[in-house]
Amino acid sequence: MIGAYQDGLDVSHPDVTTPEEIAAYRAQYAATNKGLLDSFEFWLEFRPDVLKRHKARTAHFTAAVTPLVQILAAIHRYTIAGFRDGVAYEIRLAQSLGATRADILDTLSVAFIHAGHPGMYAAAAYAGPLREYEDPPASDRFPSSWSFDPDAFRSGMDLTTREATEEDMRRLRRWYLDTIGEVPRHVDFLARHRPGLLKAYRDRYEHAIRDSLPKQMLPYLLLNHHVVRGSRDAIRENVLLGAAVGMSRDELLDAICFAVLHAGANALDLADEAAGDLLATID
Question: What is the average pLDDT score of the chain?
Fold first, then answer.
C-alpha cells in the first residue's frame, strides 16, 4: 500500500505544508546524497502544493524494477538532454543505491548513442568525481531475474572491417528476425542506402554495455527514451527486444510509465498504439 508521505511530505494534503514537513523533506534529500534541488526549492518557496502533487506520482512510476534502474534511466535521460546538474545529482544518488562506476559508464555509453556532444559535455563535467568513484559494497541492485551478458546483442557481423558486406546485412537481418521477429524500417533503409553507417551504428549498439549492466537495461533505457521522444516504431522494437531478453510486462511498463515524468501522460497514447497489443501477450 502506498503511504501518505513521499520524501517527508504529506502528499495526501497538498494544500497544507508545515515547517516540519519541509525540514523532513530536506533531511530526506540530504540523506540520499542527491542534494537539495533548485527546481523543488522554487516550489517550496512559492507553491508547495505543486511540489506535493508532483511528488504524489513518484511511487506510481515503478512496480517491478529496483530503485537503481529508474535512477540509471534518469542519468540516461539527463545526459541526452544535456542537463549537467541532473547528471551529477543522479550519479550521486545512484552511488548511494549501490551503483558501481562500471554501471554508470555503461549507462553513459548507451546515452552517448543519442546524446551527441551536448550530452557528453554535461556528463564530462562530472568526470573528476568519476575518477575518484569508490564502488559501494556488492548488493542486489538489479532485479534478480536480470543478468549481465556482454554478448547479448551481437549480430554476427564482421566488425573487424569497416566495409559493410552483403553477408553483414544478411546476418543483421537474421539477428532481428530471430530476436524480435521483424526487421525495423530504419535497418532496411540504411542497408539499402548507407550500409556502412548501419554497420558502424550497430558496432556502438552491440558494445555499449561492456562491463556490468544487465542486458535488460538496454531495452529499458531505450524504451523509456523513445516514449519520451515519441518514436512509435522504436517503442515497438524495444518492447519486443525487452520481451526477448526476459523482461516482464510490469518491467516494460515501468520503462514506459517513467516517461510520464518528462513527456506527460499523453505520451502513452503513442506507446499504446505502438505496443499495446504486444504488452497484452507478455506475462
Answer: 96
